[in-house]
Design brief:
The protein is α/β, with parallel strands linked by helices. It contains 14 helices and 11 strands. Helix content is 40%, strand content 16%. An 11-stranded mixed beta sheet has the order 1-3-2-4-6-5-10-11-9-7-8, with helices on both faces. It is globular. It comes from Gossypium anomalum. One of its GO terms (molecular function) is hydrolase activity, acting on carbon-nitrogen (but not peptide) bonds, in linear amides.
């Protein structure tokens, strides 16, 4: 089915009414869209590829995450375009078209939850559901100038969501308003309302921000001023995350010995990304190799080689990936303790232009996955927060909290948001 004209966000429009008409429900009056990776009863889940849609039957059950927000009082208005088989963070789809980035129409919207991000960014819905395995909510949120939340791994059921790589798959969501982001999160995570808690420490890893092409005045500078205003500067701590991870995650040495020590990256985080990619490819292969080899689907030229590489990849050293996960989660839990926050660039720079040659994006992608793999491998929750525009392109920053601290992080975003936007507005005036 051809995309609609609404910024190219939707692959299919329909209306699912909330399961109750009560006005007292937390999401009453809100509209949402769902990525075409979620099952909806009576509709074929397309997974971003026409051959997948052609060879699969309509779902007979609706994914629990979708049911939760319907039961919370929200109205679903359709399914959104995604990258094929969730295997890209660009957001371009040769079959259904590329959704238009509302902040920068000549730039990619980010993926794989591209349509879900665009639907929110363009004001077509109040919030949307996506999935995040390697960065598929965080990246498009950053590129489209909106909020995007990746929850703690396994905190929300992925039943009825086509698996990409189960060790990393999460159900995430987008919103423009931090209060809506919080309300949606409480419904999806089945959380009670709790009072906000002041963070105990906020760690800023200067080495990670050195990977970004965005000036520090537009990222850490904005956040530091906001923290100082609200909580005082004593909770701010500076850390070299690469050195900390290298020391505390000894299993990474296996991956660092394989030529990942690039001058343009942080060696330990590049190794972390390699570990994640190895396990992700292994699980993707287990999930989908039979269908791919049997159907030989028509895949976009920018994805076909990478997907087939995954299908043909050897199954080696998978056990060491589990050791990396265990060690990283323990190391970051020890660093952050209770109510600690780790600050990161969501992505290492501006959204790439449409149809940029993949070879020229190699360094950008490598840096991006080094940053994205921190939450991915640890299973920690992460939120991407917009910081306005720099040189007419969207800027963001991310906050991470330890596994299970989703309510704390959602409350913190809501408490910080207005101050951050105010400081970002000042910075925008003087740095653009």
């Amino acid at each position: 089915m051809a995309k609609t004209s609404e910024s190219g966000a939707f692959v299919e429009k329909f209306v699912l009414q909330p399961t109750s008409s009560s006005q007292q429900l937390p999401l009453s009056g809100l509209t949402f869209a769902v990525k075409d990776i979620f099952d909806v009863d009576g509709y074929v889940t397309g997974f971003g590829n026409p051959d997948w849609k052609r060879t699969h039957s309509a779902a007979t059950l609706t994914a629990p995450a979708v049911l939760d927000v319907l039961e919370g009082g929200a109205t679903c208005v359709g399914k959104t375009i995604m990258d094929e088989m969730a295997y890209c963070i660009n957001g371009e789809n040769v079959h259904y078209g590329t959704p238009t980035n509302p902040c920068a129409p000549d730039r990619v919207p980010g993926g794989s939850s591209s349509g879900s991000a665009v639907a929110v960014g363009a004001g077509l819905v109040d919030f949307s559901l996506g999935s995040d395995t390697g960065g598929s909510v965080r990246v498009p949120a950053s590129y489209c100038g909106i909020l995007g939340f990746r929850p703690s791994h396994d905190a929300i059921s992925t039943s009825g969501v086509i698996p990409m790589a189960q060790s990393f798959d999460t159900v995430g969501w987008f919103a423009r308003d931090p209060a809506v982001l919080n309300r949606v999160g409480r419904v999806l995570l089945h959380l009670p309302n709790v009072n906000p808690v002041t963070p105990s420490q906020i760690f800023i890893p200067e080495d990670c921000f050195s990977l970004s092409s965005i000036p520090s005045a537009r990222t850490t500078g904005v956040l530091i001023k906001s923290i100082e205003k609200l909580f005082g500067g004593s909770i701010l701590k500076h850390v070299n995350l690469g050195d900390y991870v290298k020391e505390k995650v000894p299993s990474l040495h296996h991956f660092m010995a394989k030529g990942n020590d690039h001058a343009y990256n942080i060696p330990s985080l590049a190794a972390l990304s390699s570990s994640m990619r190895l396990l992700q490819r292994y699980e993707f292969k287990k999930n989908h190799a039979e269908w791919i080899t049997t159907v030989n689907p028509n895949l976009g030229p920018r994805l076909s080689e990478r997907i087939w590489d995954a299908v043909r990849s050897p199954e080696e050293n998978i056990g060491i990936c589990s050791s990396v996960q265990t060690e990283l989660r323990a190391a970051l839990t020890d660093l952050l303790k209770d109510e600690g926050i780790l600050v990161l660039p969501t992505v290492p720079g501006d959204p790439p232009k449409l149809q940029t040659d993949l070879a020229s994006l190699e360094v950008f992608r490598a840096r991006a996955f080094s940053l994205l793999s921190i939450a991915g491998v640890s299973g920690f929750c992460q939120v991407s927060i917009p910081l306005g525009m720099h040189n007419n392109l969207p800027v963001s920053i991310s906050l991470l909290a330890k596994h299970g601290s989703d309510a704390f992080l959602l409350n913190l975003v809501e408490a910080l948001y207005d101050t951050i936007q105010e400081e970002a507005g000042f910075a925008e005036k003087f740095t653009n």
